Amino acid sequence: MLKLYAMFLTLIFLVELVAAIVGFVFRHEIKNSFKNNYEKALKQYNSTGDYRSNAVDKIQNTLHCCGVTDYRDWTDTNYYSEKGFPKSCCKLEDCTPQRDANKVNNELIGIFLAYCLSRAITNNQYEIV
């Protein structure tokens, strides 16, 4: 029984290892796929509550961001030309952002800059003598 448990544990470990390797090898394709699908969801956004619009709202609320790279991504959408920014872009509770960019989240830039800084530190740690 213990050998069977060890076999299953080893099998699970190998599956996770293969998934990690595949994820690393195809990381650029995965990133581009996510970006393209998110841009498409932004273009087709509406407030009627379809699954793509709900996903966009959930992502923007959870990550406290607005758009793919920043709030200016919304200016190319039909929703923006009709109603302005969606409520999920709000910095504060109970706001109506319409077209006022001061009220929308733009923290994604900070997250991106923090990522760039950590990557630069990681890449340069071996160059220090």
UniProtKB/TrEMBL annotation:
<dbReference type="InterPro" id="IPR008952">
    <property type="entry name" value="Tetraspanin_EC2_sf"/>
</dbReference>
<feature type="transmembrane region" description="Helical">
    <location>
        <begin position="6"/>
        <end position="26"/>
    </location>
</feature>
<dbReference type="GO" id="GO:0005886">
    <property type="term" value="C:plasma membrane"/>
</dbReference>
<comment type="similarity">
    <text>Belongs to the tetraspanin (TM4SF) family.</text>
</comment>
<protein>
    <recommendedName>
        <fullName>Tetraspanin-6</fullName>
    </recommendedName>
</protein>
<keyword id="KW-0812">Transmembrane</keyword>
<keyword id="KW-0472">Membrane</keyword>
<dbReference type="InterPro" id="IPR018499">
    <property type="entry name" value="Tetraspanin/Peripherin"/>
</dbReference>
<keyword id="KW-1133">Transmembrane helix</keyword>
<dbReference type="Pfam" id="PF00335">
    <property type="entry name" value="Tetraspanin"/>
</dbReference>
<keyword id="KW-0325">Glycoprotein</keyword>
